[in-house]
């Protein structure tokens, strides 16, 4: 079995850290985390609305206003342009387009994305649209959500509807965002919407049905529009065993199959990992593996850290994760391991035919402090970004086919179950006044974009 397990050292490498002239730079956001306006213009309800209403957000906040990007998007586009960004990944809110998840189309939702796309293009910024960033319409969840095959048709129809409206101007399309996170935290552990604890089978079913829906959507859009760049966004993490004990190695290999390979091998190879074939046999039908395979023009990769795995009974797939030896951590408690990004890109080059890749998320939550003069000197985030860009530059020098880097995130935002308490933005949002304040990390990235080097 392939494994993201061989570290690539970045030390003592004197090659210049430069990026090619056509390298794309920008930032990513998601609709639910920044738009607010949850009751505006006919938007339907999504699973995160219900999750919030049940009191499941740790700080008690909601996304009802968030960054109010729905009304303030011109200001946010101006910030991107001032930084020199040429690309922006945003998500379409499925319940804005199809309030019931399927059926009647809400034209005012499409109108909003028309305005957003036109404003981006006017500013010289290439839009990258992601069709599903976790805001599944509640009626579809009520009908089984990602646990059943009934979701496949509605997702393909939704993709077709949005592309019909925007594909004349939006050339870059991503289908899903992080299906592994949706499956584990939404249907396995219940820590994200819809908040279900369905165990290992729930995780695997959610992964498989996202794969099927993704394949159907890719085919639907490709059949009706020529010349588009089609892809999807995966959260990939090198998996390493916590020790050389056989039980830890076995747990790591099985977790790698669940976390990385169901989505990656399904898309790229049309293959379910051998380690999971028996567990998934009950809901994989003849033809499914061919249906989930589809060539992509651009693979979006979200990277935050490695995963260090030990055998821990009672956890899904007996996999306990966490690296107690890693001393540097973000405000989310996640390890800071920039070398893992180079490991990951190298594995995609050597094991998957070197596909065109864009880093579609990379960033960190920091406990930002506003100084008396209103500035945010987020040195930890600047260092985090610099080290990860070093990793990307090394991978490029080694022949990895990396097309661009989008930081997470442009704005502080609603950080899912953490609410408004964790700040990931290179621009601070004051949630009382909604004032935007660029941080030092914003200025750092702007300088890298300007010079094309570290």
UniProtKB/TrEMBL annotation:
Keyword terms, alphabetized: Carbohydrate metabolism, Cellulose degradation, Glycosidase, Hydrolase, Polysaccharide degradation
Keyword Hydrolase assigned: yes
EC top class, as a word: hydrolase
PROSITE patterns: GLYCOSYL_HYDROL_F1_2
InterPro entries tied to this protein: GH, GH_1_N_CS, Glyco_hydro_1, Glyco_hydro_1_beta-glucosidase
Transmembrane segments: none
Keyword DNA repair among UniProt keywords: no
Enzymatic reactions: Hydrolysis of terminal, non-reducing beta-D-glucosyl residues with release of beta-D-glucose
Known EC number: 3.2.1.21
GO molecular function: beta-glucosidase activity
NCBIfam families from the UniProt entry: BGL
Record family assignment: Belongs to the glycosyl hydrolase 1 family.
This protein's name: Beta-glucosidase
Organism for this UniProt entry: Azospirillum picis
Source taxonomy: Bacteria, Pseudomonadati, Pseudomonadota, Alphaproteobacteria, Rhodospirillales
């Amino acid at each position: 079995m392939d494994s993201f397990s061989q570290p690539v050292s970045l030390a003592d490498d004197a090659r210049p850290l430069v990026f090619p002239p056509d390298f794309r730079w920008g930032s990513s956001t998601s609709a639910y985390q920044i738009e607010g306006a949850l009751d505006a213009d006919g938007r339907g309800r999504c699973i995160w609305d219900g999750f919030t209403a049940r009191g499941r957000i740790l700080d008690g906040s909601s996304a009802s206003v968030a960054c109010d990007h729905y009304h303030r998007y011109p200001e946010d586009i101006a910030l991107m342009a001032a930084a020199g960004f040429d690309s922006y990944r945003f998500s379409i809110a499925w319940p804005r387009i199809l309030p019931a998840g399927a059926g009647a189309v809400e034209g005012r939702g499409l109108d909003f994305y028309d305005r957003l796309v036109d404003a981006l293009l006017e500013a010289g910024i290439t839009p990258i649209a992601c069709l599903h960033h976790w805001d599944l319409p509640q009626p579809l969840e009520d009908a089984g959500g990602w646990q059943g095959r009934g979701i496949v048709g509605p997702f393909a129809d939704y993709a077709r509807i949005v592309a019909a409206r925007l594909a004349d101007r939006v050339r870059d399309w991503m289908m899903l965002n992080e299906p592994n996170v949706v499956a584990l935290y939404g249907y396995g552990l219940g820590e994200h919407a819809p908040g279900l604890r369905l165990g290992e089978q729930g995780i695997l079913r959610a992964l498989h049905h996202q794969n099927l829906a993704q394949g159907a959507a890719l085919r639907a859009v490709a059949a009706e529009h020529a010349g588009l760049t089609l892809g999807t966004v995966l959260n990939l993490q090198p998996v390493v065993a916590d020790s050389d004990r056989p039980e830890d190695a076995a747990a790591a290999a099985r977790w790698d199959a669940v976390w990385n390979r169901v989505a990656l091998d399904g898309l790229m190879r049309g293959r379910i990992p051998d380690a999971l074939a028996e567990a998934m046999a009950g809901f994989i039908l003849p033809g499914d593996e061919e249906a989930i395979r589809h060539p992509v023009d651009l693979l979006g990769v979200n990277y935050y850290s490695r995963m260090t795995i030990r055998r821990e009974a009672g956890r899904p797939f007996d996999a306990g994760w966490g690296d107690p030896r890693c001393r540097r951590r973000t405000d989310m408690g996640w390890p800071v391991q920039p070398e893992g990004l180079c490991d990951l890109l190298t594995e995609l080059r050597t094991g998957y035919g070197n596909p065109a890749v864009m880093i579609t998320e990379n960033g960190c939550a920091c406990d930002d402090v506003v100084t008396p003069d209103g500035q945010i000197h987020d040195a930890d985030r600047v260092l985090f970004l610099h080290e990860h860009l070093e990793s990307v530059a090394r991978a490029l020098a080694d022949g990895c086919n990396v097309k661009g880097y989008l930081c997470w995130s442009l704005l502080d935002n609603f950080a899912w179950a953490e609410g408004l308490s964790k700040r990931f933005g290179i621009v601070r949002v004051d949630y009382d006044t909604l004032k935007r304040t660029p941080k030092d990390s914003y200025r750092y990235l702007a300088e890298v974009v300007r010079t094309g080097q570290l």
